[in-house]
Specification:
single chain; about 80 residues; two-stranded antiparallel ribbon; 4 helices
């Protein structure tokens, strides 16, 4: 959700509905920003339909690839 980070949206994954995602924009987001985020989501949906393997291995253009959340939970590296 790098697009969400760029536009300052809050993204939640509610536990009461399986495979759901709730997106909450702040009041200061412009219509153009929200439209750009919606376009990014539609582009991801198209990729899922056309090239699912690309999405399964995402992210591919970041310094860190897919995080190992289980390993991170077992041995956290905290900094203050």
């Amino acid at each position: 959700m790098s697009a969400a980070v760029r536009v300052g949206l809050r993204v939640y994954f509610p536990l009461i509905v399986e495979e759901s995602m709730m997106i909450e924009p702040t009041e200061t987001e412009s219509r153009e920003t929200l439209d750009a985020f919606a376009e990014a989501l539609l582009a991801i949906a198209r990729e899922v339909e056309e090239q699912p393997e690309v999405v399964k291995v995402a992210p591919t253009t970041t310094v860190i690839g897919r995080l190992d959340e289980a390993a991170a939970a077992r041995s956290p590296k905290l900094r203050w």
